[in-house]
Amino acid sequence: MKATRPAWEEKPTIGGQALKGTSIVVIALLILFPLYTIALTSLSSGETVNRVGGLVIWPGDGVTFSAYEQMFRNPVVLRSLVVSLAVTAVGTVISVVVSILGAYSLSRPGSFGHKSILFSVLLMFVIFPGLIPVYLWVSAIGLRDNYLAIILPMAVSAFNVVVLRAFFMSIPQELFDSARIDGAGEFRVLWQIVTPLSKAVIAVVTLFYAVGYWNNWFNAFLYLDDTSKWPLALVLRTYVVESAPLPQASGLQDAPPTLAVKMAIVMVAIIPALIIYPFVQKHFKKGVIIGAVKG
Question: What transmembrane ranges does the database entry give (predicted)?
């Protein structure tokens, strides 16, 4: 009797391949078309934007960088860009280091408070302290109007710690035993054995944290009263989403239309993620899926 194979192991039909290809093309267009219109509007002249009356779909009177020139001459946008870069860099380093240390300790059986701490981490998936307790905690320790107020509340993600822990547990125990026979301590084992073998999952977790800090505007909205400390994400929300007037930069004879400047701010906000994702994408399957399944 001929054994039957599951449907997902069968060779795809021509119709199935055509449907899959069409679906991929449609999804790609749905993703790329908004990016195309945003980029084209930010590069369009005032006449083109005024003639269209909204987002530009077809190039008109040529390409101009006047919107980007005004944006980078504007102290509000330029300062917020520097703040976002600094907060993202510092916050990502803190989050990755703390997550690696926590995940490694939770992956070692018999470590101090292993079960209770692991239970607390897993409990964070279903129970979150809420906005008011976190706000009161930040205010009580004097972090209002401080950059640490937008870093510490999101410094550790329970999901990232669990993913790192699962990957660390998949490393053969023989490597740990041989390192300890050679006299290596826990920090040396972590630095010279665990970290090199976990580059894929660390790269993915680093990306998760970096994108989270880069796009985070809500904590800045709550805790930063000084507008000069606002990150780019909050400036983007204020001047683009809420349509607040953006201060005009000096030195430009023909100021670009407001819509073009807004779209230029949007492009600057999304370009870093577009640049980083292709370099980290190859690690996603190995870093997250395999580690999570093995855990």
Answer: 21-43, 81-104, 116-141, 147-168, 189-214, 259-280
